[in-house]
Design goal:
By secondary structure, the chain is α+β, with helices and mostly antiparallel strands. It has five helices and seven strands, in the order E-H-H-H-E-E-E-H-E-H-E-E. The longest helix is centred in the first third of the chain and has 16 residues.
Length: 177
């Protein structure tokens, strides 16, 4: 298993992977019509090209023998996020974090999160934040074990529905994680 930055020509692979992992995670939990709307807005080739070419974004992938089996979309954020209840000078958002079920229990998610936190620290970010669906206890436990603290709730729109998420932060120390 290789952890690396996504390549500019991998937009199509990321579009397919993102849709697959999103369906794998939420199918049966969210109405099909809302899933379809969300996927159309989020995982197309155009969207992936835009995300890969945005200098504020970094995409880390899990590459196993040339197949992408997981990824994290990271976004450097403006510190003027007044609506968010934390104050980092240089925050980094984990906008997406997904690992194929075939790798669950194999340490892949832990390795990817370690790479995320290492990247954040090496780029001078003082904190990392993310949102996780409040009805996903496995993910909430994973993030807690990775050192994230729950600081409140947030909303997330999926098609026509609005769900409540947990807002989690991880404070990075000046000399490490």
């Amino acid at each position: 298993m290789l952890l690396r930055a996504a390549l500019p020509d991998e937009a199509q692979d990321l579009a397919i992977l993102g849709e697959h992992l999103w369906r794998e995670t939420y199918l049966g939990l969210i109405p099909d019509a809302n899933i379809a709307l969300h996927l159309a807005e989020t995982f197309g080739l155009r969207q992936q090209n835009a995300e890969l070419s945005d200098p504020a974004n970094t995409v880390l992938v899990i590459d196993e023998g040339g197949s992408l089996l997981g990824y994290a979309l990271l976004r450097a954020c403006s510190p003027e996020l007044a609506e968010l209840p934390f104050h980092f000078a240089r925050p980094l958002e984990v906008a997406r974090f997904y690992v194929d079920k075939a790798l669950h229990g194999a340490g892949a998610a832990q390795a990817l999160m370690a790479a995320v936190l290492s990247h954040a620290a090496s780029e001078g970010h003082d904190g990392v934040w993310l949102q996780v669906w409040e009805q996903n206890p496995r993910a909430i436990r994973f993030y807690a074990k990775a050192g994230f603290t729950d600081i409140g709730d947030a909303t997330f729109r999926i098609g026509e529905q609005v769900d409540r998420d947990r807002l989690l932060i991880h404070t990075l120390m000046a000399r490490g994680l």
